[in-house]
Design brief:
The chain is α/β, with parallel strands linked by helices and about 525 residues long. The strands form six sheets. Strands 12, 13, 14, 15, 16, 17, 18, 19, 20 and 21 form a ten-stranded mixed β-sheet that branches. It has a five-stranded parallel β-sheet with strand order 4-3-5-6-7. It is globular. The chain has a domain at about 410-500: GMP Synthetase, Chain A, domain 3, CATH 3.30.300. About 50% of the residues are buried. The protein is built from 15 helices and 26 strands. Keywords: Ligase. This is 2-furoate---CoA ligase. One of its GO terms (molecular function) is medium-chain fatty acid-CoA ligase activity. Belongs to the ATP-dependent AMP-binding enzyme family.
Length: about 525
Amino acid sequence: MLDLGRTFLQSVERSPHALALVDGDFRTTYTQWHRIILNAAQGLRELGFVRGDRLLVVLQNRWEMATLHWACQFAGIVMVPLNWRAKPDELDYCVTDAGVKAIVYEPVSADAVMQSPAACNVPRIGLDDAPGRTATIDVLFAAQSDATLTTHADANADDYSLILYTSGTTGKAKGVPRRHRHERAAALAHVAQNLYRHGERTLGVMPLYHTMGVRSLLSMALVDGLFVCMRRWNARLALDSIARYKLTCLYLVPTLYHDLLADPAFNDIDTSPVTKLGFAGAPMSDGLLKRLSAAFEPELFVNHYGSSEVYTFSIDQHATVKPGSAGRAGINTRLRVVKLNAQSPDDVAAVHEEGQIIADLLGDEAFEGYWNRPDANAKSLRDGWYFTGDTGFFDADGDLYVSGRVDDMIISGGENISPVDIESVLSLHPCVDEVAVAGVKDDRWGQRVVAFVKRSDYVDGATLDAWCRASDLVNFKRPRDYVFVDDIPKSPVGKILRRKLQAGEYQRDERGPIDPAIQPLTRHTEITKE
């Protein structure tokens, strides 16, 4: 199999003059970008980097970040991208855990870098006059003479390409090392599963420290396409980029799609070039699926379910046909659902029985184990299968439904209750903008089902309770409380942070009814099982 450096060379050779990368006023073709990448790779070598060394990069989605990613692939250096919002202790841990040789960062991350003892013990390459730097970015991007440049790729398909650090919502973040062959297989699968054609154009807004962002970057190179950098999410700027660069495909988390539709300029901007929509990272509510389908009328609408460890678990290329379905195993993957307490991959759950989703580690996109974490390996890797920690079930057609996380499962009165089922019902109410359901400690029930609702228009708890009663939601799953909030807390990549809701870390929406005669009901104490 080709390594990623040679993969990029394919695009340079096929489409040398095609526009490859845009970041504001910065625009470059494949040939021009290739030269910049080779300069950066040589700059890393002159800093003392050798094949297999790790480089920590703490940058937003800017052209330098994308370029360093490719430079590492050419030089055989392991890219370690980290959230630019990382706190000093998180930075300290990752610098030490990955054993990085240097850090590249920008002013927005400078305070965290300078407050990290481990970061202060390695060379620090700063952009834009970032304080605390020991060198400027010029040491990497200075033009090199032809005589000094190494024009071939130093890596091979079995070398490590990068280490992605999981978000670490509980405990320490886990490093996920992925080889060139894992990354190339995942990018090829992404191209095939999203039906990308030659010359596609995408919005590069999903962070390049996250597997979704990396996949967008690599897949555009595979089809000689255009990657338009967006450093921070801004719905209006995203819409302008769609129109200006005639973007053809979007791959976003549901939250960002929600923001696009909510922007006042949406109806005034030509989004017709976008023919393919893809989403991942979190479930998409039935309501948002319908709104997006009506607004974009895409020829393809893909629900992608995966992870850093195994990029593709499953895909559904017709996301609106069976809302909530994650479809079937990707082209490089085998999946099973085992019983919730299963210790063996052979303890398979029945059709419609909720259990834990597991993936075959022989799949081409699957990692081989966590970096320096035998404890995490012992928990998640069993008999050649990766236990995802996600819950779900197969329906009678063989389609997978993802219901949440094992840790998010609500156990109320002895019943296992999935938050996603309830969220799907509530999301269809016209006054519900966003909703998250979580289990809150309760002396009688163990956990109480609580719906945290961001309203688009006024609605009260009694109305939402009646909505649930009129749906096919079984009675014991109905929320016992409705809490109206200003915003639903999420991670930087759009995952709902239920632990924050459970801990009371939210702002209440105190708006009252327009009609004083309306008396909102925000608590329901009567629950009977059906």
